[in-house]
Amino acid sequence: MDRKLNKAIKHYYRSGSLAAMTDPGLIGLLHANGMIVPAEDLTHDELIKKLFHEKGIADQASVVASFLIGLETGQAQKRAALSAYVIMLNFPAHGFASTHGIQCNVCGVFKSRSRDFTLCNLARYSVGATYSGAPEQLYVFLKEHNKTAVPAVQSVSMLKNVLSVLRTADLQDRPVTLEKKLRAIPGIGMDKEQSRALLDLLGHLGVLETPEHKGFVHHYTYIGLAPRKSHSSDWSYPVDFWTGRDGVNEEAVEFWFGDYL
After folding, report:
1. Is domain 157-260 classified as CATH 1.10.10?
2. Could you count the other beta carbons within 10 Å of the beta carbon of residue 11?
3. How distant, in Å, are the alpha carbons of 72, 180, 184, 186, 240 from that of 212?
4. Is 101 left (phi over 0), alpha (psi -120 to 50) or beta?
5. What is the pTM of this model?
6. Structural contact between residues 189 and 197, judged by C-beta atoms closer than 8 angstroms
């Protein structure tokens, strides 16, 4: 990512909102790159309806192709839609249901509030995947993906390099070990946060899962209430539990990327 654009994104994160940003040049840069998505006051049910609308437009072929292009070219924003799509495969249609009337027990969304969609969109560019499964993020990831056509995939060499790292992992390797190995791949163009997000996404896809902790192809898991390997862990579910002994789920590789391999 362009250094000035990265600086603008970090300035937004530190400021907490567009209105609180103090550098007009960085504000203009975010606008010029289409990163500003107006906030909306939405109830839980209104947001979920919008989310299902975008999921209905998206299709597996386009989100996989976008992911592969993003992986090949170092564009995190092109990888993000796949992370939203896999979670939405079994995401339940539901109305607001809450024990305490504040957050939904099913998906974690607050009953009613202003939704900071710019923050979600910036995560597309700076992270490239959802680690929380927040419906606000899933909605923006899919909506932005659905705006433009996806060109044909020209190369999957980076995917093959990533799979090679995964398949040759030592038995004792953990996600933190793989993260360093991924960043060492020549030309991958990822910082620490993006390589961690890629591993989180591979867990969501079921490529990196365990017999007890599965990806999201066959069932929905609310990540906010999913088990964690330790209280201090900040890895997403289920890759948090993965070790080299679990290996690569080749069926999941075939399901998602078989057409290109």
Report:
1. yes
2. 18
3. 32, 25, 30, 34, 12
4. left
5. 0.94
6. no
Ranges for all domains in the chain classified under CATH 1.10.10 = 157-260
Left if phi > 0, otherwise alpha if psi is -120 to 50, otherwise beta: which for 108? left
From residue 190, alpha-carbon distances to 160, 181, 183, 184, 235 in Å are: 16, 11, 6, 9, 17
Tokens of 150: 């996806």
Could you tell me how far CA 87 lies from the centroid of its own chain? 9
One pLDDT digit (tens) per residue for the chain, 261 residues: 678 888 999 999 999 888 899 999 999 999 998 899 999 999 999 999 999 999 999 999 999 999 999 999 999 999 999 999 999 999 999 999 999 889 999 999 999 999 999 999 999 999 999 989 999 999 999 999 999 999 999 999 999 999 999 999 999 999 999 999 999 999 999 999 999 999 999 999 999 999 999 999 999 999 988 989 988 888 999 999 999 999 999 999 999 999 999
Sign of the CA dihedral with 120 first, then 9, 199, and 74 last:
positive
